[in-house]
From TrEMBL:
It comes from Pelecanoides urinatrix. The keyword tRNA-binding does not apply. Belongs to the MCTP family. The keyword Signal does not apply. Pfam families: C2 (PF00168). It is found in: Membrane. This is MCTP2 protein. Keywords: Calcium, Membrane, Metal-binding, Repeat, Transmembrane, Transmembrane helix. One of its GO terms (biological process) is regulation of neurotransmitter secretion. PROSITE patterns: C2 (PS50004).
Amino acid sequence: KSANPQWREQFDFHYFSDRKDMLDIEVWRKDNKKHEELLGTCQVDVTALPTKQTNCLELPLEKHPGSLLMLIAVAPCTGVSISDLCVCPLADPGERQQISQRYCIKNSFRDIKDVGFLQVKVLKAVDLLAADFAGKSDPFCVLELGNDSLQTHTVYKNLNPEWNKVFTFPIKDIHDVLEVTVFDEDGDKPPDFLGKVAIPLLSV
């Protein structure tokens, strides 16, 4: 019930060399659980922004009244990575020992914000739902931790895809839940949902 909402939320997007650097933003209105209405869209060319500083932007919504006020900072990725299984981080015993020492009890208060990190190996999916008429799907997997999101590549025409990717997330809150969702890529249309699992960090 507001024409001037304040969200004050922070989202981290991780750009790698194979990603386009255009940030698409949509503003939606909800009447109830079933009815939604698009209130406007805008775009930010991330490559045009100065790096290593916080940029304050007022973005007018295209073809609709109103604007969005945002703070956007472009900085090198730290603590987040995607790698192949064959070059998996943490595989080196020396590196594991360094990490064990970094997060041991006597060092736990050295940096309160450095809670730790989570490494997830996404190997494969089995017996997925067929999403197209040919009895196949084009699945990819999205991992979300807090407001961090990373995803695998798409394996086309396969109900038993193998991704064999390793994802590393910095942990900001030990009470967060890792959500792993499998989607079917559907060209220019929104992807189809194929399944989801949620894993609380406290259960790991």
